[in-house]
Amino acid sequence: MSDLPRKAVTRTAKLAALPLGMAGRATLGFGKRMGGRPADVVAAEMQQRTADQLFKTLGELKGGAMKFGQALSVFEAALPEEVAGPYRAALTKLQEAAPPMPAASVHAVLAASLGPDWRGLFRDFDEKPAAAASIGQVHRAVWHDGREVAVKVQYPGAGQALLSDLTQLGRVARLIGPMVPGLDVKPLISELRNRVTEELDYALEAESQQLHAEEFADDPDITVPGVVAQGEQVLVTEWMAGVPLSEVIVGGSREQRDRAGQLLARFLFAGPARTGLLHADPHPGNFRLLVDDGPASGWRLGVLDFGTVDRLPEGLPEPVGAALRMALEGDAAGVLEMLRQEGFVKPTISLDPDAVLDYLLPIIEPAAVDEFHFTRGWMRSQAARIGDPRSPAYTLGRQLNLPPSYLLIHRVTLSTIGVLSQLDACAPLRAELLEWLPGFAPDADWDGDGPAGHDEAPAVDWAEV
After folding, report:
1. What is the pTM assigned to this prediction?
2. Overall number of domains in the chain
3. Alpha helix (H) ranges present in 35-102?
4. Is there a domain that residue 3 lies in?
5. Which stretches within 120-226 are classed as H helix?
6. Any idea what DSSP says for residue 42?
7. Do 185 and 208 fall within a single domain?
8. Looking at the DSSP assignment, which residues form a beta bridge with residue 125?
9. Residue 347: how many other CB atoms lie within 10 Å
10. Are residues 456 and 377 in the same domain?
């Protein structure tokens, strides 16, 4: 068994077969309907088979294919229920697991990154992976000083697989799109492809994670495991147990769902303000709900995987908060002016300020109330309103532009809202915005010059780690 199907022709063939399989099932379904079977029964069978083939293939290939599948998983809440139902279980699998690589390959990577005597660094090393994801798998171990650790081992050939998969997926994005209705997959694939180099750099990941671990070390609500050691293709961090958010989504209590939602929203906005970095891979597999056994007993949020971050030394952009505040105050002209200054509306485009406000208000509804109940129904209604070609919102949305500097912020925000909707969480989003989002507080006075800002995030001295 190979670590990853590394031959480009093999991976390309498997990915290219996805839309062909879809076409074949459509033909078969037409034949069944002609034979007298109910159309809704045939459609349901086709959706289930499509989901199974699509996400089974993405998961087995790992690399960019699985990364793409994980990114899609957070948007499941926006899909119509008749489509989302068959996809939900297959999507959830991509958030936590993938087929493991052979032990011999794991040992070879550890020897290359940590030295031939790597076993001496551990008191114990579990050969069976505790988790396997898109570019690496995690083993549970005990470090030589007695600490329980997570050992993240990168798949050999992961870089080549990432680029190959995402290139091929980009070529067939138009054909894959109908498998996940309502989502524009091409920009998502392009953005993932642009992040390949950073995703593979474990030194950068270690630096980002350690910065968060130190910043949140004494936080009562959010926990980030510290970095223990790092090599070219190996990252050793403190072990963190807890309940994966994917499990909370499936069977969590109301208390767990609401608490997870509150803390996820807090981390989205507090993280950039406190560290100058935005965690940019917010799928449920990267978060844990932890029991706090201290004096303030309750639930804490554990955060994993800092392989992709957006560097925001001044925190989230102040114009985002200012525009949100102005929209809630009904200042249509001010909102449109800010959108123009930030590049969301190109100079050649003429828009009615009131129409822009009407477009935005339903989307920003969670910021208008003290507590908002995020549901799949609400998420679907927004996706339908913006994605229906007959809707004025669709027409206006097509005239807006997304500046490159906002691409990752936009995806992370939408992804987090998708997870909140999957959680069915009641969350006090407004309170988090007031505390952490520059420009949102009522006394904020945005003049277009940007925030006074946070200092550049300090570098980590790896000689001390």
Report:
1. 0.77
2. 3
3. 39-61, 63-73, 81-93
4. no
5. 158-171, 173-176, 185-194, 196-200, 202-215
6. H
7. no
8. 141
9. 7
10. yes
